[in-house]
């Protein structure tokens, strides 16, 4: 782009002034380097064949858009209901807690003393607890994937990125509230000095790159059943990490985990309320979707996690959480039975033949899971115990 006369003169003057301030030897050296560079033969460009990026875990055979188009009208008709029943469960930003409320204040003259106190408390907590806490934190940090997932649901997605539809407002505000969870846990773990932050950050990057596949098929019927189940699962998990932190003497960490658990409980109330409304308006489709999700099994959001080393990382993390009682197969059965009761599935009437079969299936499933868990517990107790290295804790071993 051409410069105006005045600007050009000013630029020349500044360049001249800059040159006059440099020692003559420096100016000579620069001139020599420029001359040498201009006389060097051109290096022929060698084409570089880069390998395209691929996720560490890939999912084949995905099913999309299985909900009939006319069912989307249900969600359009629920927009006023969603505004009054969902958006009122969100908290205003100004009255919401923020991660800094629970962490040493970097602007305070006591920051180093506060951090040292945090680190001393952290030293009293065993490695196996940190495996569970890190796994929970990584799950929270994959939040971009979860917002993307909600925006795949037909009839409730954010069509513009800033839509004023109540469904879209809910998704963005839910994401904003959830975003604090990973931020708080990650900053706490960073200050604790007990974990390998670079390995944790790699795991987060891998996980977001892999995404998630929870078999909801873009259907909000299945999607909101999944989120109802999952929010209760995270409420249980964070509540139990709070309980363990308190037992190990870290009351601040217990408060952190308990505060996050309270958020998850409130979000659970929102999603279960959506599904309750779907059972009221279209009980046949709702119970069939419920049975479909339970046949597929509710997988955890971070089931594709990878740290660059351990292909079985999620299974190993889950095994530690099961052994510590942070989240177990028993909890899975409890959640199923809770939702069956919450949505009054046993009392559903006037269903189609497929709907009746779906109702009977989910109502009997809790006891079936409990029997399977009893057998699995017996096998766990008799098998040889083994230890697994976790890169998150500097490759130290933990019993799984």
Automatic annotation (TrEMBL):
Coiled coil: none annotated. Pfam families: FA_desaturase_2. CDD domains: Acyl_ACP_Desat. Pathway: Lipid metabolism; fatty acid metabolism. Residues 1-26 are annotated as: Disordered. It catalyses: hexadecanoyl-[ACP] + 2 reduced [2Fe-2S]-[ferredoxin] + O2 + 2 H(+) = (4Z)-hexadecenoyl-[ACP] + 2 oxidized [2Fe-2S]-[ferredoxin] + 2 H2O. It is an enzyme of class 1 (oxidoreductase). GO terms for biological process: fatty acid biosynthetic process. Homodimer. PANTHER family: ACYL- ACYL-CARRIER-PROTEIN DESATURASE-RELATED (PTHR31155), STEAROYL-[ACYL-CARRIER-PROTEIN] 9-DESATURASE 7, CHLOROPLASTIC (PTHR31155:SF9). Introduction of a cis double bond between carbons of the acyl chain. This is Acyl-[acyl-carrier-protein] desaturase.
